Every structure is written in C-alpha cells, then in structure tokens.
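Hi there, hope your week has been kind to you so far. Thanks so much in advance, here it is.
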Amino acid sequence: MVELGYRKRIDSSAYMAYRWETPDSVWLEDEASGQFELASGQGLSRIDWQAQARSRLPDVARVLGASLPPPPTTSCAHAAIYPQGFAFCPECGAALHVCAPPARRLPSWWGPSSAPLPVDESPLPRHVPLGLPVTALPLAATLETRAPEPAVGVPDLKIPAPPNAVCVFAASYFGFAAQRLLALAYTRNVLQYWDPVAARWHVMAAEDGAADLSFHASAYAWLPGRADARRGEVGMVPTAQGLVRLVMNPVSESYRTEMVLPARLASAPGMVGRRVACLIAAATGVRLWTADADGADSETLEIVADDGIPDPDGTGWGIPAAGWSRPFSYDGKLIWLHELGELYWRPGAAPRWLPWPAGWTPRLGFGGPVRSRDGRLWQIGHDGQAYSFRELGTERAQLQPLNGARLGLGTLLFRRGHQVKNEPWDVENVEDQARGDDMVLPLLENVSGTREQPTGLVLRMQAYSGKAEAALEEATLPRTLIEWVGQRNVILDEAVRLKRPGDCQPFVYDNCLWLHHPSWNEMRGWRLEAQS
C-alpha cells in the first residue's frame, strides 16, 4: 500500500478538518462528517471538488489510485471516497476497494504520429515510416482467432460516439493510475474525456488563459508527451494561436495550455530524431520552425526550391500556407505532402520544396505513401491519362506507371479487391476472381517481425464498379465489410450506406480495437483476447 504522510488537524471558525498527505496529493477529512476531499494533487492545476457529482467519484478514485467504500451489502457508508493508501475504513475497519494501478500496463495510442514510441509501447521498426496509420501492437494474433470469412462477425462492445464526432483519439495513462481515452474535436475547440465507469463522455472545460484548440489550416496531427512528461501532460498540439502543450485535469474535468510557439501555423507538427518542426505562415512566406522536444534551441529556417537556390525575393516561392498532409518521418527526414508539391527537411540542412511535375496530381486520399522493397517511398498520382507512383524525398524522382488506381499505405496495398503483395507497381495477387468487383481501402497496417506478408484492417466495398475517387468522396456505398486481412482473413462487421470511408478511424483502447466514423452513433470494438 501507499505510505501515508502525517495526519494534521486544521481548525477555523467554519471548518474543522484533518489533513492527510500522500506522495502525490493532499486530502482533507471533515471532522464532523468524516468525508474526504482532495485539496491538491501533483500536476493538477486546480481542484473543483464541490462540483463533482457522486457519480464521478468512482472514476476519480481509479484515476488517482484512491480507495472506494466496500460494496453496499456491508454496513459501512462513512465516506464516498478515501485517499490513496487507505485499505480499511478508519471509522469501522471495513475493508475498502483499493483502486490500485494494474499490474500490466495497457499500451498507449496516439494514432498516426511522427514521434517515436518508447521501447515498452511496441515501437515501429526503423524501416517503417512514422506518421502513417501503422502499428506494431500484436493485433493479428488475437483477431485472427475469430471465425474466418465468409462468416460475418459482430462487435464485442459498443460505446457512444463522442458528442463532437470529428476528432482524433489518444489513449494513455497521462501520469495517472488508470488509462483513459481522450477525443479532441480539433475543428470545434472541444476536448472530450471518456468516463468508463459512468459510461459517458465529459466535455472538459478550458481553464483561464487556455488557447483555442481549433486547427483548420491543414490535416491534424499531434505529438505525444515526452517520456519525462509531467502528470496530466497530453502532448504538443497545433492550435489557432500557435503550437502549445496540452495538460488535462481529469478530476476537475478541465485543461490548460502552455504556449510553445506563438505563430500562425501552416501545418501540424512533426518529429524527426529529437527535433520537432512545423511549417509557419510568416509575413514573407512559409518558413520551417524547429526546436528540441522540450522547446529549447529553436530556429526558423528559410525553404529552398528543388534546385537548391534560396528564395530570391523573400516571397516564399509561393509555398502554400494551408492544405498540408500530416507529416511523416522516414530515413532521417520529415516530409509534408500537398496537392501542389512536397516539402522535406533533414536536420542540419535547409528544408526543400519540390513542386510536382506539370500535369501530375497526387491522390492524397488513397491512403498514404507506400514503400518499395528497396526502402524508397512512393506517392500515387494521375497525369490526366493514367496513374503512376512518384518517388518521394529526392530531386531526381522516378516514376512508375500503373494499370489502375491502388489504395493503401506502407506495404498494405490493393488494386480493386485484390492485394498487391510484392512491389507497389507489380501485378496484384488474384486469389478469388469474384473479388475483382470490390474495392478495398486499407485503414491500418499491422507490422510484425514474424510476418512476410502485409497485414491490417481494411474496408471492403462490395460490388463497387465506379472510380476510386468517387468511392472515397461522394458515393454512398450500399455494403461495406470491415475486414482483417492477414494469415487468416476475418470479417469483423459490416456497414450499410457508408459515405466517405476514409473518415473511419481505428484506435486501440482498453485492450480493444475500435473503429469510429463521424456519421455513426456508436463506436464498434473488438476485444484483443484470443477467442475460444
């Protein structure tokens, strides 16, 4: 048990209480009622204890590692919550429910982020780009124990979708005793917190001086808190006012921000090595700002064009100040993609802007960059006549012609309903002729050192004969299968009348794989435990 500090009596004309100290908090025990309340806690900027309804206390106790009263079947009802370290009621000696941290920590989830994960969080291998929807968590081993296709499964669990449904998800401990799920609605300046005990979402209040969390300039991405982050620190996030650190308080259902870079951001932040970087819209054009992960040693760099010549008149080469993709890092470089070109930066060198060749337009909604067997990255696009892959991150880029649209990311790639298992431009593997009428969109690649063939979560749009662009942007899809592709293909569920399938977001929380779409009222979850 946690060792408690001293118990001290506090007297005033209106209030008499005992003070209890634990290693990370201070509690007050009302002498008259015997009730406990949290006075202060490490990393908690303010405590609004009186505003807490009793229905919130079970969640608060689990987050803090405190103790709860025994079951109602006992005669003990002396307090609604007890400080950390209390194993027995001090009034009657009844055994309390101790909300101790779990023996096995659950893995964190940040979605596509270019920040490297700690060694105990299933980090991606060095040959995998960071910032794409790729995970090294052991998902396949459990999901593939389910009944294989053509059986259509159903979710094990469902939870309500966040009230503000266009959002990004993070699941972590954030320095507390229990893992919790956050949903940041970045288009509406709303931070949402899932209370698993009450089974409801809470909208967290902004504390005085907090920045507006809205971000509309480009695709959203955030950087998780550092390994030595303070309690409650979520991470580094782009906002309408600049780049900030977001710190949440699950007790008072509030959050605060700390400014890192006050500037007009043109892109979401990325990370390569130990350096953080983002594009900023300066008065003379777009520049690249970079700093260490703690915000120190910052500098603003001028961007050079593909021929290496500096900007001659300081206008920024006409580099766009909005509309950038999420950044991804690979081979020591940080890369942003845009409808007009690509921008990449290697620490120690000048950032470079490479416009696409005339007439060639990328298809950024087709999934993400793909990787060839020699380790190069490629982006699919169209030149008005046919599709092709263009090599990324080099001035002398090669083009590889294609015989049709291909959807995917990393090494998980499909042409229509068939998987492409060798080079991205090779002929697809036809294992079932009937699947040629489908179209498959990969959502999440699952990498493993023990597997040679790509594995992951996909959407199979059945009997779709239209163009890929229409399927992703405007078509209503009558029947879409949510499928796991691997050594054993498993249909996890199906969706009807789905629009904009690329808006689906998979994430892992509480030992479940979840799938969210902004148009769904509920999120669907599958337990990551072997099926009997």
The chain has two domains: 7-98, 134-527. The first strand starts at residue 7 and ends at 11.
